[in-house]
């Protein structure tokens, strides 16, 4: 048994090596707050970390007190910040006296508190909501405007050209059955003076049976077709010539437009799907074709030349003349008169066609709808004032006088093919105006040099003096192709002059 003195001495050594620490949140065996003991190598510690307080809406310090025994590597953990930690945490340690950790006040590096974004800041929630709302609203408004514009545009086109609405057909036109020959349908609708009702036009266009192509021009291709056994001509416009189709359809459906010497209009329609569009213009069919084609294969005698010249002048006079009244007709300028745009009827008369460049003149508003391009029509037939750009595009009379210049060149083409004696060979070969001065496809500059600078006009043979009709037409030509538009004859004046000629042909004075 150990002596008491030694037992007491050992007990005193043990007490000197044991120290007490305050513990809170880190007590041994999960004990409540109190004290814990450390021995040699152990330490007391105080740690602090940032804990978010919902009430104060900020981080607040949270302290933990306890003991690290030697086997917990306490000294290793007491070197600065504890890592890794999701939150900032600092620790201080001591072992110099009992409860030494109560005097420790470690500090933690505070996390930067992000400033609440201002209202105008891109990160501000109200700003984001406002921006999203504005963007959505603008998009919606633009979409609505686009839809309204498209609908109004469609209605405007329909109103302007009298096309393709369902309800207004019944209101605008009386009920009209599509039966019988075309001549009967046209007679039934003659009261309006502007052609067949639109519903009838659409019905006819759906029943057309295409036969074969008979020609191709600048604006489209012409087909021979049939409707209930009646031959008709169908002009199929190129997709790039939508404006020409609109213009020609509008002109043909002008009130009181129908005339014996204007190509008979039957119907207009647009067929198509999302992938393609077909614009159709259906007119009377004339098997002799254009005057250009006819003159190459036929010679004329004085009577046929007289009849053709008179009927062309008559059709042009009807175009140029304004008819006043409740259902009046505006004056119209063709702006592309040439032999290819004049058709030869079976009875020898002629009729004017192709109104893709035509313009109307409304005397009450003094307005004409002329496109901005000064160069109009076919270069070979352009009047001097068009070639040198001196024409006043806002003067409707100037467009009529340009028509008369081109008409004079057509008279010259026909006169060359007229037999001046008993022998058939006396007729000259067909030729286009200025055939001996410019290339087959003359440029604008070619025509300007010949017509404006050199002031050349087609040659008039002396043998034309031997025939009354040729002699009269020679004078008409020279007056109509004069450089000064004011000197040129009007279509009405030419018509009256030709009506006074004494020929064997019976001409109906209109």
Number of domains: 3
Look up the CATH topology of the largest domain.
Transferase(Phosphotransferase), domain 1
Distance between the termini: 161 Å
> What are the secondary-structure elements, in order, as H or E?
HEEEEEHEHHHHEEEHEEHHEEEEEHHHHH
- Globular, elongated, flat, extended or rod-shaped: what is the shape? rod-shaped
Summing up helix and strand content along with how strands pair, one would put the structural category as alpha+beta
Strand content: 15-25%
Mean pLDDT: 81
Which regions have little confidence, pLDDT < 50, spanning 5+ residues?
9-14, 82-86, 160-177, 504-510
Largest beta-sheet characterization: 5 strands, antiparallel
CATH class of the largest domain: Mainly Alpha
Count helical runs.
14
Number of strand elements: 16
**Portion of residues in helices?**
25-40%
CATH superfamily of the largest domain: Transferase(Phosphotransferase) domain 1
Membrane topology: Single-pass type I membrane protein
Family: Belongs to the protein kinase superfamily. TKL Ser/Thr protein kinase family. TGFB receptor subfamily.
Keywords: ATP-binding, Kinase, Magnesium, Membrane, Metal-binding, Nucleotide-binding, Receptor, Serine/threonine-protein kinase, Signal, Transferase, Transmembrane, Transmembrane helix
GO molecular function, one term: transmembrane receptor protein serine/threonine kinase activity
């Amino acid at each position: 048994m150990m002596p008491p003195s030694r037992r007491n001495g050992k007990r005193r050594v043990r007490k000197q090596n044991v120290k007490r620490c305050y513990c809170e949140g880190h007590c041994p065996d999960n004990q409540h707050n109190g004290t814990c003991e450390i021995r040699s190598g152990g330490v007391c510690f105080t740690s602090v970390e940032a804990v978010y307080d919902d009430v104060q809406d900020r981080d607040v310090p949270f302290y933990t007190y306890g003991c690290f025994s030697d086997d917990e590597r306490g000294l290793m953990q007491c070197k600065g910040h504890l890592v890794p930690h999701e939150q900032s945490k600092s620790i201080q340690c001591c072992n110099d006296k009992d409860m030494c950790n109560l005097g420790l006040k470690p500090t933690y590096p505070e996390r930067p508190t992000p400033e609440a974004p201002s209202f105008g800041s891109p990160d501000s929630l109200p700003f984001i909501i406002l921006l999203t709302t504005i963007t959505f609203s603008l998009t919606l408004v633009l979409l609505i405007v686009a839809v309204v514009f498209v609908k109004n545009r469609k209605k405007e086109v329909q109103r302007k050209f009298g096309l393709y609405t369902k309800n207004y057909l019944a209101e605008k036109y009386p009920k009209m059955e599509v039966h019988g020959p075309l001549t009967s349908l046209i007679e039934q609708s003659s009261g309006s003076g502007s052609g067949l009702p639109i519903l009838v036009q659409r019905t006819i266009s759906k029943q057309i049976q295409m036969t074969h192509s008979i020609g191709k021009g600048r604006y489209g291709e012409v087909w021979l077709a049939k409707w209930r056994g009646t031959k008709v001509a169908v002009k199929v416009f190129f997709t790039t010539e939508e404006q020409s189709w609109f213009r020609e359809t509008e002109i043909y459906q002008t009130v009181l437009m129908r005339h014996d010497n204007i190509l008979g209009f039957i119907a207009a329609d647009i067929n198509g799907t999302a992938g393609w569009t077909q614009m159709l213009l259906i007119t009377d069919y004339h098997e002799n074709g254009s005057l250009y084609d006819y003159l190459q294969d036929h010679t004329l005698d004085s009577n046929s030349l007289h009849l053709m010249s008179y009927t062309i002048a008559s059709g042009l006079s009807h175009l140029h003349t304004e008819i006043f009244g409740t259902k009046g007709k505006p004056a119209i300028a063709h702006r592309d008169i040439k032999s290819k745009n004049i058709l030869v009827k079976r009875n020898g008369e002629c009729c004017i066609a192709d109104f893709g460049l035509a313009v109307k003149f409304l005397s009450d508003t003094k307005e004409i709808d002329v496109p901005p391009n000064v160069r109009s029509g076919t270069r070979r037939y352009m009047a001097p004032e068009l070639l040198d750009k001196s024409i006043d595009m806002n003067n409707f009379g100037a467009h009529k006088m340009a028509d008369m210049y081109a008409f004079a060149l057509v008279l010259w083409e026909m006169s060359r093919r007229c037999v001046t004696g008993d022998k058939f060979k006396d007729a000259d070969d067909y030729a286009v105006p200025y055939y001996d001065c410019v290339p087959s496809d003359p440029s604008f500059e070619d025509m300007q040099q010949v017509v404006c600078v050199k002031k050349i006009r087609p040659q008039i043979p002396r043998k034309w003096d031997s025939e009354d009709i040729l002699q009269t037409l020679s004078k008409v030509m020279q007056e109509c192709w004069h450089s000064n538009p004011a000197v040129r004859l009007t279509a009405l004046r030419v018509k009256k002059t030709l009506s006074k000629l004494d020929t064997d042909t019976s001409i109906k004075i209109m």
